[in-house]
C-alpha cells in the first residue's frame, strides 16, 4: 500500500497531542487527518485499501481504513465498494468497529442485487448500537428486501429507537408500498 495511505491511517490514530491546553479537537493531528481522508477521491486507492483491510489484524487500523475506503467510494461514486463493505459486516466482531462500518455504509449507494444479508443479520443483534446502525445502513439501498425488513420492524418492534431509525431509513428508500 502507498506510504501516503499508511501515514494517513497513522495520523488518524495519533493521539499524541491530547494534552494541549486549552484542548481544541479541531487542532489535533487526528481531526485534521480525518478531514483529509473525507476529501480523497483517487480510485487507485480502492484496491490497496481492500488488500490492507483483508490482511490487517489491528482493529483500529482496519477501522480507519474502512473510513478512508468509504469516503473514496462515495467521492468517486464507485459501485463495487459498497458490496465489499457490506460483506465485511459479517467479519467484524468488535461492536465499535462494526457500528462505524455500518455508519459509513449508510451513505453509499447500494444497487439492487447487493447482498444485504450481513446487514439484515446485524439488525438482529442484541447490541442496540449495532442494531440501530444496521437499520440506518439500509439507506441508499435499491433492494426491495430492505424495505420489507424495515416494514417488519415497524410492524413488530416496540422499541422507540427501532421505530425511529426504521422510519427515517424508509423515508430514504421507501416506495408507495411503505405509505400505509
Structure keywords:
180 residues; single chain
Number of helices: 10
Regions with little confidence, pLDDT below 50 for 5+ residues: none
Distance between the termini: 50 Å
Cα-atom Rg, whole angstroms?
17 Å
What is the number of beta strands? 0
Main β-sheet, in a few words?
A: none
Structural class: mainly alpha
Q: What would the average pLDDT be, to the nearest integer?
A: 95
Spell the H/E element sequence.
Answer: HHHHHHHHHH
* Beta content: under 5%
From the spread of the alpha carbons, the general shape counts as globular
Percent of residues in helices comes to: 55-70%
Structure overview:
With 180 residues, this protein is mainly alpha-helical. It is 63% helix and 0% strand. It contains 10 helices and no strands. The protein has helices at 3-12, 29-38, 45-55, 59-76, 81-89, 95-105, 117-123, 128-137, 144-156, 160-173. It is globular. The termini are far apart. The model has no long low-confidence stretch (mean pLDDT 95).
Compact summary:
By secondary structure, this protein is mostly helical. The protein has helices at residues 3-12, 29-38, 45-55, 59-76, 81-89, 95-105, 117-123, 128-137, 144-156, 160-173.
Give a topology summary.
Layout: H1 3-12, H2 29-38, H3 45-55, H4 59-76, H5 81-89, H6 95-105, H7 117-123, H8 128-137, H9 144-156, H10 160-173
Amino acid at each position: 500500500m502507498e506510504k501516503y495511505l499508511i501515514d494517513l491511517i497513522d495520523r488518524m490514530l495519533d493521539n499524541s497531542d491530547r494534552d494541549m491546553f486549552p484542548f481544541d479537537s479541531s487542532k489535533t493531528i487526528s481531526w485534521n487527518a480525518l478531514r483529509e481522508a473525507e476529501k480523497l477521491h483517487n480510485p487507485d486507492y480502492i484496491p490497496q485499501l481492500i488488500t490492507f483491510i483483508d490482511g490487517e489484524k489491528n482493529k483500529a487500523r482496519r477501522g480507519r481504513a474502512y473510513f478512508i475506503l468509504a469516503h473514496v467510494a462515495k467521492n468517486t461514486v464507485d459501485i463495487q465498494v459498497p458490496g465489499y463493505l457490506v460483506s465485511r459486516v459479517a467479519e467484524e466482531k468488535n461492536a465499535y468497529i462494526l457500528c462505524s462500518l455500518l455508519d459509513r455504509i449508510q451513505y453509499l449507494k447500494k444497487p439492487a442485487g447487493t447482498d444485504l444479508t450481513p446487514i439484515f443479520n446485524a439488525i438482529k443483534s442484541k447490541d442496540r448500537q449495532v442494531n440501530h446502525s444496521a437499520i440506518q445502513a439500509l439507506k441508499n439501498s435499491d433492494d426491495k428486501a430492505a424495505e420489507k425488513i424495515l416494514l417488519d420492524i415497524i410492524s413488530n418492534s416496540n422499541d422507540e429507537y427501532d421505530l425511529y431509525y426504521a422510519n427515517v431509513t424508509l423515508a430514504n428508500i421507501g416506495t408507495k408500498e411503505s405509505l400505509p
